[in-house]
């Protein structure tokens, strides 16, 4: 290539289109690269803008000398098996340090990648030759991606085209793929060194002494040279930590996290947070190298749990009944705590529960169930709850709460009696006469004393005027404390002795064959049966 090939070029990027014309079938071999595969193709100009090579970024301004920058060579194409390019640059302005394969063809399988770097290709220019091809009988790759990355080092101030030449594409059959190639350029300018602290934030504005606080510092490289520098974070004027930011590219930002152990700080004091980057050699804009933003107030470490209240479900219960004891506890400190809560009557243990991981400032309600079976009766018991002390707890006065006296009474004698049985109609109104062939109804009135709820068996046994049994009717159902009514019905058969008849009612604890016994003597009543 002649050096004057680069003279008098416009800064505007130009697109070159080339197509490869095959002169014969090319044998594909894993040991050969596309450079050989396509060497017999001729080049001529066509327009194929939908498939192309491009440099990214295509226009770049960097600081120099002796700065590094990276250019990606990208490709948009279809059914690609291999490619071959040459890239020229002015060697007095920039040199190539390295060339690495991109991921585009690798997505299709194993590849063979070859690159040659010649920073002294001729008197004025350097050149790299890069080629890559898939290996084996595989399909081509379609789409877009990076085929190679080129790392440059700046040498002098000035301007250089980055020009793609002799670009080749081929499909799996060795046929050329029409395409375009778009050049780029780089301008090397005097180095401007400028780093800045852009933002400082903390994960909390209040911390307990000894707690870890994260401090996030965002820095920016506002110069035109990749920079490596230190960042230091301070609480007031005491340094917390220093970290190194390595190879921050120009125009780039980075957030660095510092962890501050607040042990040794003074509770009640607020600490101002500051981040600082020392001045770089040659840096002139130093106003943004320091940023003070935010403060963290240190709190005293407090471990304190408390029983807030006790309530009981009843102040008087009969022996063998249960009492619900409701206990409310609170974490009054500023650490998450786990502790035990024990319920007592007087100083006698009832039960305990473990409160797990109660957050600072949070409450939790507990339920204890006290079974009074076997306790002495006609005695009043004082209920209390005690929270166990947690580590480093000082205030123990609120760990115990006494409230809620419960008196256990003797269980009263249970009584279930039948007050009366009344012949009646179907809604319970009294009736003195029933007709043969009709229905007779009997209302049984039961009085229950000192029961909560009981399942009973109510029976009525009916006899005609000759004291012959007409029938027995039973019903099983619940009764509660007080008065209960049951209405039982019995048909009056055609064969019956008319006149004055009798009904006898009773109440049993269960069916007699299941061990049921009567609660009280039976009660009777008279009525008349007639034939209408």
- Give the end-to-end Cα distance, rounded to a whole number of Å: 138 Å
Radius of gyration: 50 Å
Poorly predicted tracts of residues: 1-48
Question: What is the approximate shape?
Answer: elongated
Number of domains: 4
Describe the structure using short key phrases.
single chain; 532 residues; Immunoglobulin-like; 4 domains; 7-stranded mixed beta sheet; 6-stranded mixed beta sheet; 35 strands; 1% helix
Could you characterize what this model shows?
- This protein has one helix at residues 34-37, and strands at 15-21, 42-44, 52-56, 59-64, 68-80, 82-90, 94-101, 111-118, 125-134, 141-154, 158-170, 179-182, 184-190, 195-202, 206-208, 212-221, 227-235, 238-248, 253-261, 270-276, 290-299, 305-312, 316-318, 322-331, 337-345, 348-358, 363-371, 379-387, 400-409, 415-424, 433-435, 439-463, 469-491, 499-508, 523-530.
- It folds into 4 domains: 3-190, Immunoglobulin-like, CATH 2.60.40; 195-299, Immunoglobulin-like (Sandwich); 305-409, Immunoglobulin-like (Sandwich); 415-530, Immunoglobulin-like (Sandwich), CATH 2.60.40.
- Residues 1-48 have low confidence and may be disordered.
- The protein is mainly β and 532 residues long.
- It starts with 14 loop residues before the first strand and ends with a strand.
- The strands form 7 sheets. Strands 2-1-12-3-5-10-7 form a 7-stranded mixed sheet, with no helix packed on it. A 6-stranded mixed sheet has the order 4-13-11-6-9-8, with no helix packed on it.
């Amino acid at each position: 290539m002649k050096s004057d090939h680069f003279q008098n070029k416009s800064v505007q990027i130009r697109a070159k289109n080339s197509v490869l014309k095959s002169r014969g079938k090319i044998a594909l071999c894993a040991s050969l690269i596309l450079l050989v595969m396509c060497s017999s193709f001729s080049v001529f100009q066509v327009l194929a803008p939908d498939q192309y090579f491009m440099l990214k970024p295509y226009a770049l301004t960097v600081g120099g000398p002796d700065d590094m920058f990276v250019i990606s060579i990208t490709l948009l194409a279809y059914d690609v098996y291999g490619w071959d390019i040459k890239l020229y640059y002015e060697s007095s302005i920039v040199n190539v340090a390295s060339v690495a394969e991109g991921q585009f063809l690798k997505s299709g399988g194993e590849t063979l990648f070859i690159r040659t770097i010649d920073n002294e290709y001729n008197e004025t220019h350097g050149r790299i030759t890069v080629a890559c091809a898939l290996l084996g009988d595989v399909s081509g790759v379609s789409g877009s991606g990076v085929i190679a990355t080129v790392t440059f080092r700046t040498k002098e101030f000035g301007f250089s085209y980055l020009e793609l030449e002799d670009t080749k594409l081929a499909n799996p059959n060795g046929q050329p793929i029409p395409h375009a190639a778009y050049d780029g350029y780089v301008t090397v300018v005097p180095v401007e060194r400028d780093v800045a602290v852009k933002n400082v934030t903390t994960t909390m504005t209040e911390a307990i002494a000894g707690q870890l606080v994260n401090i996030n510092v965002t820095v920016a490289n506002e110069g035109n040279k990749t920079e490596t520098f230190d960042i230091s974070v301070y609480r007031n004027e005491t340094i917390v930590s220093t970290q190194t930011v390595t190879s921050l590219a120009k125009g780039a930002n980075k957030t660095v996290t510092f962890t501050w152990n607040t042990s040794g700080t003074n509770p009640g004091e607020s600490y101002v947070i500051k981040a600082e980057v020392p001045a770089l050699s040659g840096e002139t804009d130093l106003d943004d190298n320091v940023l003070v933003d935010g403060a963290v107030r240190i709190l005293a470490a407090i471990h304190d749990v408390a029983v807030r209240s006790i309530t009981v479900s009843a102040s008087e219960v009969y022996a063998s009944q249960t009492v619900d004891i409701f206990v409310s506890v609170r974490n009054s400190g500023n650490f998450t705590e786990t502790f035990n809560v024990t319920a007592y009557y007087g100083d006698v243990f009832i039960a305990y529960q473990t409160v797990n991981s109660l957050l600072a400032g949070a409450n939790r309600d507990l339920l204890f169930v006290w079974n009074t079976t076997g306790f002495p009766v006609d005695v009043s018991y004082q209920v209390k709850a005690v929270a166990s002390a947690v580590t480093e707890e000082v205030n123990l006065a609120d760990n115990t709460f006494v409230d809620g006296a419960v008196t256990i009474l003797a269980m009263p004698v249970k009584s279930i009696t039948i007050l009366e049985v009344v012949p009646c109609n179907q809604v319970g109104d009294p009736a003195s006469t029933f007709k043969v062939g009709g229905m007779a109804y009997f209302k049984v009135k039961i009085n229950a004393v000192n029961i909560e709820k009981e399942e009973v068996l109510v029976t009525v046994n009916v006899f005609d005027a000759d004291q012959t049994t007409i029938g027995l009717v039973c019903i099983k159902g619940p009764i509660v404390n007080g008065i209960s009514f049951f209405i039982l019905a019995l048909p009056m058969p055609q064969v019956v002795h008319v006149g004055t008849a009798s009904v006898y009612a009773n109440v049993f604890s269960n069916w007699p064959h299941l061990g049921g016994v009567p609660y009280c003597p039976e009660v009777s009543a008279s009525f008349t049966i007639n034939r209408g």
